[in-house]
């Protein structure tokens, strides 16, 4: 399985957790069963890790999203866009071996596939602002 498909599966699982208000452990269990014998151990570990990282740090990630969505509260975002933004920010913040441009580009591609016509540019703008802000915090 490619990293792109892994990200897509992670985003879909995060969406399922958000919309269905499902327990993350139940969603991961379902995902493990669905993916069994279809993915490498390495891909499954990344998938579980990125979902856990996103869920464990959701409050901080949501604060960052809220800071960079001008005139738009996080509650008003579509659940698809919110799931995409959370996943991308989890990668930007906590996964060091993925270049920021890759995380942002993959988020834009997910928005093209799963969201509205306007979402790719919106997702790109929010993530770009967030990344620049995070870089400023590290200086």
How many helical elements? 7
Tell me the number of structural domains.
1
**What's the Cα radius of gyration?**
14 Å
Sequence stretches where pLDDT stays below 50 over 5 or more residues: none
For the largest beta-sheet, the strand count, sense and barrel status come to: none
SS content category: mainly alpha
CATH class: Mainly Alpha
What name is given to the CATH topology? N-utilizing Substance Protein B Homolog, Chain A
Question: What is the second-level CATH architecture?
Answer: Orthogonal Bundle
Strand content: under 5%
Rounded to the nearest angstrom, the distance between the terminal CA atoms is 37 Å
Query: CATH-wise, what's the superfamily?
Result: NusB-like
Helical percent range?
over 70%
Net shape: globular
Number of strands: 0
Secondary-structure element string: HHHHHHH
- Overall pLDDT metric: 90
Describe the protein's architecture and organization.
With 139 residues, this protein is an all-alpha fold. It has a single domain (3-138), classed as Orthogonal Bundle (N-utilizing Substance Protein B Homolog, Chain A). It is built from seven helices and no strands. The protein has helices spanning 3-20, 24-35, 41-56, 58-68, 79-94, 100-114, 119-138. The radius of gyration is 14 Å and the shape is globular. The chain starts with a helix and ends with a helix. The mean pLDDT is 90.
What is the element layout, followed by pairings?
Elements: H1 3-20, H2 24-35, H3 41-56, H4 58-68, H5 79-94, H6 100-114, H7 119-138
């Amino acid at each position: 399985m490619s990293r792109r498909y892994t990200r897509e599966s992670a985003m879909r699982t995060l969406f399922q957790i958000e919309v269905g208000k499902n327990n993350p452990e139940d969603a991961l269990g379902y995902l493990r069963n669905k993916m069994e014998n279809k993915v490498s151990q390495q891909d499954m570990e990344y998938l579980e890790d990125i979902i856990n990282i996103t869920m464990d740090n959701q409050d901080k990630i949501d604060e960052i999203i809220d800071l960079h969505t001008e005139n738009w509260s996080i509650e008003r975002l579509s659940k698809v866009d919110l799931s995409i933004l959370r996943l991308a920010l989890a990668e930007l913040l906590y996964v060091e071996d993925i270049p920021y441009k890759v995380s942002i580009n993959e988020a834009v591609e997910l928005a093209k596939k799963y969201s509205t016509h306007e979402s790719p540019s919106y997702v790109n703008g929010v993530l770009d602002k967030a990344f620049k802000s995070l870089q400023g915090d590290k200086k």
